[in-house]
User: Fold this.
Amino acid sequence: MALNQHPPIEWRIEETLVPYPRAVAAMEDRVAAIRAGTAPEMVWLLEHPPLYTAGTSADPDELLTPDRFPVYRSGRGGRYTYHGPGQRVAYVMLDLQRRGGDVRGYVRDLEAWLIATLTRFNVRGERREGRVGIWVARPGGKEDKIGAIGVRVRRWVTYHGVALNVEPDLSYFAGIVPCGITGYGVTSLVDLGLPVSLPEVDAALRAEFAAVFGTETASPPVYTASTA
Assistant:
């Protein structure tokens, strides 16, 4: 997709942890404003406190330790996932009606975005048929998940998005069956031996977004501090 095909996107980066209910409410407000034409599209980069979310296909049996962290029902697709400090969550609010109305193509673009971002750190992220998310092949044939994807679309405006493991506590994923997929592990950039910071990941995400989505990013990003 050629650059400048769409108006510049607003980028917002939270400097403190954002409670999940507040994030969902803010996304829903922004989705309505985008649909009404009173606000631009936006990418919101943040971290959550430790929590589990249940997507629309979540199986209660896959919540292995229900009392470990708060559990929130989510309108996004998918099953259980973990969010917490050290994981870069990117909530993406785009007007798909202006972008061709292809939901599956949008999900493929999110995958491509994560793969391109990982490439900047010399990590080969890959898709796997039948396994949602982005995967990394480890020595000996083992495969671990490094990026999760879960989206929702309301009146052709997207929200929710992706989560990239930078330096989360990977032991917290043991409280669920991540995305309903068994037999595989979870990894992060730091777990792969790459001492990458969140600001470095943010810069990579911003740089690759334009190439994948054909949209310039407003510069500089807006930094905000969440309040509970």
In short: The CA atoms of residues 33 and 74 lie 21 Å apart. DSSP finds three helices and 13 strands in the chain. The two ends are 39 Å apart (CA to CA).
